Amino acid sequence: MKKKLLGAVLSVAMVATLLAGCGGSADTGAAPAAPAAPAAPAAEAPAEEAAPAEEKADDAAPAAEAPAGGMKVGVAMPTKDLQRWNQDGSNMEKELKDAGYEVDLQYASNDVQTQVSQIENMINNGCGVLVIAAIEGDSLGTVLASAKEKNIPVIAYDRLIMNTDAVSYYATFDNYMVGTKQGEYIKDQIKLDSEAGPFNLEVTTGDPGDNNARYFYQGAIDVLQPYIDEGKLVVKSGQLDFDKVATASWSSENAQSRAENIVSSDYSDGSNIDAWLCSNDSTAQGVVAALDANYNGEWPIITGQDCDVVSVQNMIAGKQSMSIFKDTRTLASQVVKMVGQILKGETVDVNDTETYDNGTGVIPSYLCEPVFADINNYKELLIDSGYYTEADLQ
Ligand code: BGC
Predict the structure, then answer these.
(1) Is residue 270 part of a domain?
(2) Does the CB atom of residue 174 touch ligand 1 within 6 A?
(3) Backbone CA torsion sign across 114, 308, 24, 216
(4) pLDDT under 50 in the chain at which residues?
(5) Which helix (H) or strand (E) holds 20?
(6) What is the number of domains present in the chain?
(7) pLDDT at residue 161 in the model
(8) Cβ count within 10 A of residue 142
């Protein structure tokens, strides 16, 4: 797994990325840094210090062969249940149409078979490129073999598609860095380096079939594990292994019921939970609901990811402490650009050719850089940037 230390420049680079957008900086040939070890919270660096990201594009992948199909692009999204996928889909649809392509956008209600048939239809209906956010990374091998037979390039969107050589490119936010930032946030907020503790921690991560979930988990655990080892962080439930803390389908209900069990088994004696690492907003919302109903201690630091409206509202209400902001406009624009490059037979911009091996080899990737939002910077990140209006968050 890629880990490059950028030290002090990192928080500055994150602001630079935010200002430039991940697609924007690639225009100049310099990709945003894709390191996996943040040093300090992103938003603390004032904008005027922003400097170009330190790292140059690692490589540009070879130009794809011009695809056999026409100028129709198939976009397969996992579910409409989560706000972010609606935004991803509609941003891409709009930008692709603006660029003159036909778009076949499908949502699969988190059902693998539905997604497979949607992709089959896209292949049979003449799509020239497929953009796929997989429900289950391991379940698309057969259908994508037929895409490959027809010389249809595939871009894995946000989530890597595993164990198939039909994937040409991967575009995502740096998933390991998402986890690192969540772990760092907990470390900073409960002052693990200066307070004696011990502090209680619980952990909730995502769907085991989503390759991202392991990266989020590992990024955070790599930050927190030393404190667990020295006894400063205690996981009273004893549940720390990935399989124990995973949440099927990233569902809020599943996260809530597990959190309720933990609260009643391990915290009914009045002890505090100091931090609850949640890998994303849907799981954080489940944990918040469980704590609201059953927990009487001091409110813990709770992490999240996506800056869903409900989670930002929870942040304003003091119930969720932070959320990783992955600007879906940025990722969608980058992918639209890659689609255009593929369809024109141009060199496709990538900035990472070492991190994401899908079991058949490393997939040339474009990694965008995530930042965190909390009560102190959400206005600047989310409202000033036009992502939400004040009214959206009421
Ligand atoms: C995405 C997250 C999202 C989660 C649940 C992950 O693959 O990267 O942004 O919260 O899936 O849909």
Answers:
(1) yes
(2) no
(3) negative
(4) 1-21, 23-70
(5) helix 9-20
(6) 1
(7) 97
(8) 11
Q: What whole-number distance in Å separates Cα of residue 370 and Cα of residue 279? A: 13
Residues 6 or more apart whose CB falls under 8 angstroms from that of 311 comprise 281, 284, 285, 304, 320, 323
How much is the pTM? 0.82
Confidence at residue 53, expressed as pLDDT on a 0 to 100 scale:
33
Range of the domain at 249: 175-326
Comparing CA positions, the residue from 137, 132, 136, 84 lying closest to residue 304 is 84
Q: Is ligand 1 within 6 A of the CB of residue 207?
A: no
Which has the closest alpha carbon to 25: 48, 57, 2?
A: 57
* CB-side neighbour CA atoms (13 Å) of 60: 16
- Whole-number pLDDT of residue 191: 97
DSSP string of 275-326, one letter each residue: EEEESSHHHHHHHHHHHHHH--SPPPEE--BS--HHHHHHHHTTSS-EEEE-
Q: Which residues on adjacent β-strands are paired with residue 322?
A: 374
For residue 82 the two structure tokens come to 């989560």
Q: Residue of the nearest CA to atom 9 in ligand 1?
A: 306
| Residue 221 within a domain | yes
**Is the shortest distance between the CB of 251 and ligand 1 below 6 Å?**
no
Q: Is the CB of 159 under 6 A from ligand 1?
A: yes
* String of DSSP letters for 322-376: EEEE--HHHHHHHHHHHHHHHHTTPPEE-SBSSS-B-SSSBPPEEEEPPEEEETT
End-to-end CA distance of the chain: 40
Q: Smallest Cα–Cα separation from 332: which of 13, 94, 29?
A: 94
Give the pair of three-digit tokens for residue 190.
């409960």
Residue 208 lies in a domain: yes
Closest residue CA from atom 3 of ligand 1: 280
Determine the residue type at 373. A
Average pLDDT over all residues of the chain: 85
In a domain, 114, yes or no: no
User: Atom 6 in ligand 1: which residue has the minimum CA distance?
Assistant: 212
CATH number at residue 187: 3.40.50.2300
Task: Please tell me the predicted confidence (pLDDT) of residue 13.
Answer: 34
**Residue 128: which of 172, 171, 64 has the closest Cα?**
64
Nearest CA to ligand 1 atom 10: 280
> Is the minimum distance from the CB of 369 to ligand 1 under 6 angstroms?
no
Bond before 198 cis per omega within 30 degrees: yes
